[in-house]
Each structure stands twice: as C-alpha cells, then as structure tokens.
Amino acid sequence: MDDPFWERALGELNAGRPDAALWAQCLDAAKGNKSIAEMQYLRDRAKQLADEQAELQRRKRQDEEDAQLSQAMRIVEGLPKGACSNCQAVVLLMAQTCPKCAVRFEPGGRHQVVPGGGAKKAAR
Ligand SMILES: [Zn+2]
Fold it and tell me: How far is the centre of ligand 1, averaged over its atoms, from the C-alpha of 97 (Å)?
C-alpha cells in the first residue's frame, strides 16, 4: 500500500519516536502487547495524519480566500471616490446609484457624484 501517512507512522515507530499520547493509548488498548499496539498505532496515526493534512489544506484554502477578499477590499479602497450630491455619502466615482440614499447618478441627471469625497481640498 502506497500511503504516505502510513509510511510516516511506520517511520515514527521505526525511529522509536511515536506520538506519545497515541502510543500510550494503543499500548493500553492492546493490554501491553507491543505488536498489537504497533498495528493499532499505524492505523490510528495514519488516520490522524490524514486528518491533519485535510485540516491544513482547508485552512490554506481559507487563508487564500481571505487574502483574495482583502485584496479586493484594498482595490475598492484605492478607487477614486466622491460624495453623493443628494446625501453626501462617500461613494465610488464610478457608482451608478448611491448605496445610502439610492438616487441614480446619470450624466446630466439631477444627482452626481461630486469628486473629492465631499471634503473640500485645498486649491491645487
Ligand atoms: Zn446619496
């Protein structure tokens, strides 16, 4: 059987460095019979390692998703913003509607996004 987890568990046993807690459990369950305990250890440890690996991969995926999300948020934060001419909420210059008061921004329409985020900037 070509199972990397099984091999690693076997390696731990061969090196005389099994996972102490699990080994104690296995010895106990085998009532001190070392061969039986070793078989038990290999089975349980391989499963433990596989579970750990799965958990690591799950966390890695989660981290990647978090990184993508925060990158998207940085991009949005970096976009030029203005103020809604109706309610002065800060909105993206490219916004088509105000997320706060829901007016539509149309070229030549009643409401526009006023560049500069509402706060008057010092003259250039
Ligand atoms: Zn508004």
Answer: 8
